[in-house]
Amino acid sequence: MRTIHILLTSLLLLTASILLQAQTPKELWAAANQAYSESRYDEAAEQYQAIIDEAPELTRAYAPVYYNLGNARFKQGELSQAILAYERCLRLDPTNKNARFNLEFARTRIVDNIADTQVFFLRQWTLMLRNSLAEHVWMWLSIALFAIALISLLLFAFSHSLAIRKSGFYTGIVALIVSAIAFANAASLHHRDSIRAEAIITRGIVNAKASPDRSGTELFTLHEGTKVLIHEVLDGYANIEVGNYNGWIPVNTLERI
């Protein structure tokens, strides 16, 4: 009797899995939103994740899916997964104010014994500016401004009007400088997303060590949801940086953004 019960349960789970896979992203989206509205957060999170897993390439259109996934994970009490989802949403759509607000709120729940370090304000402003737009937006902005700079400098070179020449010169120089800044931001974002060095701690408590092995001296402790920067991976350990601290933690205790 027990064997029959196990077989029936397995058959039901297999059938449910097949039906889930057969659903279109639009159907999954509707079902996930319905489950979320009915406080069935586990089911909603599973369906949001299924939409993402089936995507051949994640574009800005998937940012709302990550946003809703983050909300569902937060309701489940899965802080690190919620932060991870919000971070990925903002990678796809840096202008999503709701995701940014929820990310900042989720970060207030992080428990950590590492003191905040002061980052040079110009560095903070530079990162805020870079992260305010997506890579493709910065690239198109750079191209458009370069075209404006080229036209303005041509007016400066060939116009007979002194006023037009002055306007063309100053407009061209400013447009060229801003174009270079936009290009630098696009290149920086491309590099960031290519190497995927930023990660989120997904374990409750992680002890960072001085060397990539179990016998290494414990240096400091990290908690679930903390954002770190990965420098290298060796023998199942990642060399990470957070604030002014550096240490080795197991790779399976974090997930790249």
Structure, explained:
The protein has 9 helices and 7 strands, in the order H-H-H-H-H-H-H-H-H-E-E-E-E-E-E-E. The chain has 3 domains: 2-107, Tetratricopeptide repeat domain (Serine Threonine Protein Phosphatase 5, Tetratricopeptide repeat), CATH 1.25.40.10; 121-195; 198-256, SH3 type barrels, CATH 2.30.30.40. Strand 4 (227-234) and strand 5 (237-242) form a beta hairpin. The two termini are 47 Å apart. The longest helix has 34 residues, at 162-195. The protein has 257 residues and is of the alpha+beta class. It has a 5-stranded antiparallel β-sheet. Strands 2-3 form a two-stranded antiparallel ribbon. 60% of the residues lie in helices and 15% in strands.
Tag the structure with descriptive keywords:
single chain; 257 residues; alpha+beta; Serine Threonine Protein Phosphatase 5, Tetratricopeptide repeat; SH3 type barrels; 3 domains; 5-stranded antiparallel β-sheet; two-stranded antiparallel sheet; 9 helices; 15% strand
Count of structural domains? 3
**What is the helix/strand order?**
HHHHHHHHHEEEEEEE
* CATH fold annotation of the largest domain: Serine Threonine Protein Phosphatase 5, Tetratricopeptide repeat
Please report the first level of CATH classification, the CATH class of the largest domain.
Mainly Alpha
Mean pLDDT: 89
For the secondary structure, the number of strands is: 7
Our estimate of the beta-strand percent is 5-15%
Low-pLDDT ranges = none
**Helix count from the secondary structure assignment:** 9
CATH architecture of the largest domain: Alpha Horseshoe
Distance between the termini: 47 Å
Query: In order across it, which strands form the biggest sheet?
Result: 6-5-4-1-7
Helix/strand class: alpha+beta
Rounded to an integer, what's the Rg over CA atoms?
Answer: 24 Å
| CATH superfamily caption of the largest domain | Tetratricopeptide repeat domain
